[in-house]
Write a structure and sequence with these properties.
4-stranded antiparallel sheet; single chain; alpha/beta; binds adenosine-5'-triphosphate; 239 residues; Rossmann fold; 7 helices; 6-stranded mixed sheet
C-alpha cells in the first residue's frame, strides 16, 4: 500500500547540511499496523512527514496504492489526505475559530459525506475518546492532551485507508492513552493501515511490526509476537 524507495532528506537551511533520512527503503502492506521507533533525532518525524506529504523529500520515491505521490503538488496532497490519508502530527493543526465538533466533522463534509453521517461519526469518535463534553469548546480552551485526541478524531473522521500519526499518545495520561489504544486497535481490526511514530512501548506492543531508526536509517524491522504487556502494575490485554 505504501512504499518508500531510497528516500533521502537533507535539511540545508542552517548552512550545515543535516542528513535526517539516508536512503531509506520501506514497504508497508495494506492493513498493517507499523510503529516507528528510535532515539530522538533519528529521523522519525521527518520520515512520517515525508510519507504524508507535509515535508518534501530531497530525493527518492514514495508510492501509495501503486501511484507515485512524492511528485504531487500541495493541492494533490491535500486531495489525497482528504480521501485516503488521515494525519495526526505534533502541533495538531486544529482550526482555532471552529468548535471541536466542527473540527472533527469538517474533513468528512469536505469529502462529501452527508451532514447526518458526519455528525454520527463525530459523535462516535468523541465518545470513544471521552471528549463528548468538550464538543462545543474551541481548541484554545482545551488541554494539550485533549487537542491531541481531537486531532486523532479528526484524522479518523473519514475512515482513511491510511492513518499516519506522530506520537499520538505523547501528551496523554494513562486513562486517555488507553482510550486511544482501544480506538487504534479497532481501526486496525477494521482493516485500516496505521503507521505511527511512538516512544510508547504500549503503542508499539499493539503494532504488528516495529521499524527502528537510527541516524536516518532502518536498523531493525521486525514483527512482534507479544499481545500482552505489563503497564502501570497490571497486565492489559490489548487485543
Ligand atoms: N526543519 C529542520 N531543519 C534542520 N534540521 C532539522 C529540521 N527538522 C529536523 N531536523 C534534524 O533532522 C534530524 C531528524 O529529526 P527528526 O525530528 O526527524 O527526529 P525524531 O526521530 O523525530 O526526533 P524526536 O524523537 O526528538 O522527535 C535531527 O538531527 C534534527 O535536528
Amino acid at each position: 500500500m505504501l512504499k518508500a524507495h531510497n528516500l533521502v532528506k537533507i535539511y540545508a537551511a542552517s548552512g550545515v547540511p543535516v542528513h535526517a533520512v539516508r536512503g531509506l527503503d520501506l514497504e508497508i502492506e495494506a492493513g498493517e499496523f507499523v510503529a516507528i521507533m528510535g532515539p530522538s533525532g533519528s529521523g522519525k518525524s521527518t520520515l512520517i512527514h515525508m510519507l504524508g506529504g507535509l515535508d518534501p523529500r530531497t530525493s527518492g520515491e514514495i508510492w501509495l496504492d501503486g501511484k507515485r505521490v512524492d511528485t504531487l503538488s500541495e493541492s494533490g496532497w491535500a486531495l489525497l489526505r482528504r480521501k485516503k490519508v488521515g494525519f495526526v502530527f505534533q502541533g495538531f493543526n486544529l482550526v482555532a475559530n471552529m468548535t471541536v465538533a466542527d473540527n472533527v466533522e469538517l474533513p468528512a463534509l469536505l469529502a462529501g459525506t452527508s451532514p447526518r453521517e458526519a455528525r454520527e461519526r463525530r459523535e462516535q469518535l468523541l465518545d470513544k475518546l471521552s471528549l463528548s463534553d468538550r464538543a462545543e469548546a474551541s481548541p484554545g480552551q482545551l488541554s494539550g492532551g485533549e487537542q491531541q485526541r481531537v486531532a486523532l478524531a479528526r484524522a479518523l473522521a473519514n475512515r482513511p485507508a491510511l492513518l499516519l500519526a506522530d506520537e499520538p499518545t505523547g501528551n496523554l495520561d494513562s486513562r486517555n492513552t488507553r482510550d486511544v489504544l482501544r480506538l487504534l486497535g479497532e481501526v486496525h481490526r477494521g482493516g485500516q493501515t496505521i503507521v505511527m511514530v511512538t516512544h510508547d512501548a504500549r503503542v508499539a506492543a499493539l503494532a504488528d511490526r516495529v521499524v527502528s531508526l537510527l541516524d536516518g536509517e532502518i536498523v531493525d524491522d521486525g514483527r512482534i509476537p507479544r499481545r500482552k504487556i505489563a503497564g502501570a502494575g497490571e497486565v492489559i490485554d490489548l487485543r
